[in-house]
Write a structure and sequence with these properties.
By secondary structure, the chain is mostly beta strands. The chain has one domain: Roll (10 Kd Chaperonin, Protein Cpn10, Chain O). Helix content is 0%, strand content 38%. The protein is built from no helices and 6 strands. Strands 4-5-1-2-3-6 form a 6-stranded antiparallel beta sheet, with no helix packed on it. It is globular.
Length: 89
Amino acid sequence: MSALHPLGDYVVAQAEKAETKTASGLYLPEKAAEKPSTSVVTAVGADVKRVKVGDKIVYRESYGDVTTVKLGAEEFMVIKEENILAVVK
């Protein structure tokens, strides 16, 4: 559970961990690992209607649509609901 509690139609999500091992078993250095394209919703604002906590989402990340917040060692994104493009099933 996130320590962030979004307001209105905002969602807090946390990026999934990047793969650190290839299919053939080789370990990748952190810089070489692919950036994950999905995140998991950890909290939703009161006006959010399309997603819920635990949903895996794909969102638009251009033009400052995402605010990144670091709490301790964890990093979260605060995303406006209208910038969520899809829910991964």
